[in-house]
Specification:
Layout: H1 3-70, H2 72-79, H3 83-100, E1 104-110, E2 116-120, E3 146-152, E4 155-166, E5 169-179, H4 181-191, E6 195-200, H5 206-210, E7 214-217, E8 220-223, H6 228-233, E9 243-248, E10 251-262, E11 268-277, H7 279-384, E12 389-393, E13 398-401, H8 403-409, H9 421-426, H10 436-443, E14 447-453, E15 458-469, E16 472-482, H11 484-530, H12 550-561
Antiparallel strand pairs: 1-2, 1-5, 3-4, 4-5, 6-8, 6-11, 7-8, 9-10, 10-11, 12-13, 12-16, 14-15, 15-16
Helix pairs in contact: 1-4, 1-7, 2-3
Length: about 550
């Protein structure tokens, strides 16, 4: 196959693939649009049915409760099980409700065992009513008001059930029934779509079949309510399918279930079915699809003609490009030879450069080893200093600390580097009051200060020397010399000197007292010697100096005092 044919076929295949993708997207989008319309109608139908159900529940709950509380005679007749009198009493109420609401179906009285006592659905009918009444109160936990859908022998109705008590005793329940027609008519009026009712397993009424009101289909009965669409196409419906498209002589319709009807026990008893006329939408889709196919075919034809007649020009251009390419290849070959020579030259230069680099690497490795040894020696020397020495940055954060500093500040092996010096020395949150680092950062010279750190229980001579790079202070060398022992020895020496001074003073005072006491004792002895003793019994004269008198003693005492 020639290259021209291959190229044209390839382009046509690409165009067909793109058209097919666009066609698929177009059809998928149309289906989504139709489904969106159906979903919107479903939401509207469910909302409308819920609104009607709430309205009916609120409307008739009040009526049925008011009837029970205001007409005690009806309650008493029901409690006494007097069917005929109860029928006559409730019949006017039924007629009034029927006049007010054409959809009002019947009134039921149900016994506690859930059996039907009385049903009124037609004025003047037999008051015993229908015998196939459903158990609408099943599933209710105790007698209480309830509402919901139920099917009986007369069709599908909406029930409002109210328990009835007589003297606080449960005697049964009373219920109002409203035909499903009210819901269907509301749907027809608001949505303007064909509506039908499908009952699951419903009994077929012969009169309804004769009047074409009900049509049997698989699994149940569909009530078309004389709607021409559902009357003519009921047998073609597949109710269990969520959506179904029917092509009729009047147009194309999408049939869907807009509402699933469940009884009070939650069992499905029927469905409300609607049909959406999508004829215009389908026709528009078909027209758009036809246009797309025509455009695709026209595009294929135009592309074929253009490619066919333009291929010679393209081939000529390709030939010129091939000639130019051969010339460029020749130039590239010559440039390659020149490049090989240049590569050989550059390779030799690179080998020489590599040799120099290896030599440089060797010298740097030797320098690194020497630097490592120097650092190790410096660290050993730094750790050999007995005083705690640390290198601080400008924020007084420890950058390097020797072994003595680690042992002093972190005896338990904790981290020292990266913490503030005043945190480790004084357990403070700010620099010490007399920190020499502040003065050193101010004038750029070393300062020394005696600081007592109560946190460590020691006294240090702290020295801070600034580390200067030009005019900028990078940090400080912080040295703390422990003088706690010297301070204690000095205190002991001062105490000893004080004790020695006290002893010397005490000795001097004692010597002075001895001198004074010697004079006192001597004078006392002289006085004792000169005072005559008392006379003896034999009358002999006393010994001593007879010349001293009492006046002399007083004078001598005054002299001693002075």
């Amino acid at each position: 196959m020639q290259i021209r044919t291959k190229t044209i076929l390839s382009v046509l295949i690409v165009i067909l693939a793109l058209s097919g993708c666009y066609l698929y997207i177009f059809i998928h989008q149309q289906r989504e649009n139709r489904q969106l319309i159906i979903d919107n109608n479903k939401i509207r139908a469910r909302t409308l049915i819920a609104t009607v159900a709430d309205r009916l529940s609120q409307q008739y709950r009040g009526r049925i409760q008011g009837l029970i509380y205001s007409r005690r005679d009806i309650v008493q007749l029901f409690a006494g099980r007097e069917r005929r009198r109860l029928f006559k009493a409730i019949l006017p109420v039924f007629k009034q409700l029927r006049r007010e609401d054409k959809y009002f179906s019947h009134i039921n009285f149900v016994l506690p065992d859930n059996s039907l006592f009385l049903q009124i659905d037609k004025p003047g009918q037999n008051e015993e009513g229908c015998a196939c009444f459903p158990k609408v109160t099943d599933g209710v936990s105790g007698p209480r008001m309830a509402s919901g859908f139920e099917d009986d022998c007369y069709g599908l109705d909406f029930f409002i059930v109210q328990p009835v008590y007589e003297q606080k005793k449960y005697i049964g329940s009373m219920s109002f029934g409203i035909r499903i027609d009210e819901f269907l008519d509301a749907l027809r009026e608001k949505l303007d779509l064909p509506v039908a009712l499908f009952l699951t397993g419903a009994r077929l009424d012969k009169d309804a079949l004769k009047n074409h009101a009900a049509l049997p289909i698989g699994g149940g009965v569909i009530y078309a309510y004389n709607d021409p669409f559902f009357t003519g196409n009921a047998q073609r419906l597949h109710i269990r399918n969520e959506n179904q498209t029917l092509d009729t002589k009047n147009g194309v319709y999408d049939v869907f279930t807009s509402y699933v009807i469940k009884n009070i026990q939650g069992r499905e008893i029927g469905r409300i079915i609607q049909a959406l006329d999508v004829t215009r939408l389908v026709e528009s889709q078909r027209r758009d699809l036809f246009r797309l196919i025509v455009i695709t075919l026209a595009l294929l034809a135009v592309a074929t003609v253009i490619l066919y007649f333009s291929f010679n020009t393209i081939l000529g251009r390709i030939g010129e490009l091939n000639d130019r390419l051969r010339g460029k290849n020749e130039e590239l070959r010559r440039a390659g030879e020149q490049l090989e020579a240049l590569v050989e030259k550059r390779t030799a230069e690179l080998e020489e450069t590599n040799r120099h680099l290896k030599e440089e690497v060797r010298r740097r490795q030797e320098a690194n080893r020497a630097l490592h040894c120097s650092v190790h020696e410096w660290q050993s020397t730094f750790d050999a200093i007995s005083d705690p020495v640390t290198i601080l940055d400008r924020n007084l954060v420890i950058v390097i600390a020797n072994k003595a500093a680690h042992e002093l500040l972190s005896p338990d092996g904790g981290e020292v580097v990266g913490r503030n010096c005043y945190t480790l020395f004084a357990a403070g949150s700010e620099p010490c009051q007399n920190c020499p680092a502040s003065a050193a950062s101010y004038d750029g010279v070393s300062h020394e200060q005696k600081i007592e750190h109560n946190y460590l229980g020691k006294t240090f001579i702290v020295s801070c020397s600034p580390i200067v790079d030009g005019k900028e202070i990078l940090g400080f060398v912080h040295t703390a010399r422990d003088i706690t022992k010297e301070k204690n020895l000095k205190k002991q020496l001062v105490q000893a000197q004080k004790m020695e001074a006290i002893a010397t003073l005490a000795g001097g005072i004692a010597h002075d007292f001895n001198n004074i006491l010697g004079a006192i004792l001597g004078n006392a002895d002289l006085l004792l010697y000169r005072i005559p003793p008392p006379r003896q019994d034999n009358g002999s004269a006393p010994a001593g100096d007879p010349g001293i008198t009492l006046q002399d003693v007083r004078v001598n005492l005054q002299a001693i005092k002075k």
